[in-house]
């Protein structure tokens, strides 16, 4: 009875195909939430540019959600690059992550329709939970020793910090939005430098690990 499960634990293609499909659909649905403005009866066509620019919050919500989902896809891909095998826990945690990804278009639509305190908090809360499911997936894989051999503990820690960076920023956004919604939106921009620093540290760590491996191999 154990043999079929062993074969299943080494098969990740179908799980990754499902993940890529759900993420691709979620990204596509984002643009469908942007409505085409209607020119009021009796108004000239020249008011259309003003109506389009008045939808700045819809475009902003689309771009932000697209980039965040895209970054989650990149991080999801990086997780499964390092996972050599999986178990039932990985499968269900991955489904939980996809559940949250599939919900992002609705949260983005709420923000686009109500770009006030509630809309900002709702979208930030959804993105926080999505990021936490990804961090939980990585934590579970590392604790269950499902990662590839040779991946140093420091690299695992840096990756964990990367996966927690987004939830941290969005929780901060929720707290700031309670006092100043505009500033709460601006806190989302912190994702750029934080991810840049962590990516740089991860690259340096992996280069050092590769260098040490080559030295040991020549001895």
TrEMBL record:
Q: Name one GO molecular function term.
A: potassium channel activity
| Mode of membrane association | Multi-pass membrane protein
Please give the catalytic activity noted in the UniProt record: K(+)(in) = K(+)(out)
TM stretches of this protein: 15-36, 56-74, 95-114, 120-140, 160-179
UniProt keyword Ion transport present: yes
Task: Alphabetically list the UniProt keywords.
Answer: Ion channel, Ion transport, Membrane, Potassium, Potassium channel, Potassium transport, Transmembrane, Transmembrane helix, Transport
What is one cellular component GO term in this UniProt entry? membrane
Q: What is its main location?
A: membrane
Cellular compartment(s): Membrane
User: What InterPro entries does this protein's entry cite?
Assistant: TMEM175-like
Is the Transmembrane keyword given for this protein? yes
Q: Which family does it belong to?
A: Belongs to the TMEM175 family.
Name the chain's protein: TMEM175 family protein
This protein's species is Salinirubellus salinus
């Amino acid at each position: 009875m154990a043999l079929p499960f062993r074969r299943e634990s080494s098969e990740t293609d179908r799980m990754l195909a499902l993940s890529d499909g759900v993420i691709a659909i979620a990204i596509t649905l984002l643009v469908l939430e942007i409505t085409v403005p209607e020119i009021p009866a009796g108004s000239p066509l020249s008011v259309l540019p003003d109506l389009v620019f008045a939808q700045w919050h819809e475009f902003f919500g689309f771009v932000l959600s697209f980039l965040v989902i895209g970054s989650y896809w990149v991080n999801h891909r990086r997780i499964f690059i390092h996972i050599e095998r999986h178990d039932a826990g990985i499968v269900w945690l991955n489904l939980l992550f996809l559940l949250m990804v599939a919900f992002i278009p609705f949260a983005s639509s709420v923000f686009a329709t109500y770009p006030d305190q509630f809309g900002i908090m709702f979208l930030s809360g959804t993105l926080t939970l999505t990021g936490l499911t990804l961090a939980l997936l990585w934590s579970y894989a590392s604790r269950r020793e499902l990662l590839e051999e040779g991946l140093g503990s420091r690299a695992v820690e840096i990756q964990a910090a990367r996966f927690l960076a987004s939830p941290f920023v969005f929780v901060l956004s929720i707290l700031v939005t309670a006092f100043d919604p505009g500033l709460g939106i601006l806190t989302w921009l912190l994702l750029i430098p934080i991810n840049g620093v962590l990516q740089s540290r991860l690259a340096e760590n992996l280069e050092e690990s590769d260098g040490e491996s080559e030295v040991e191999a020549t001895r």
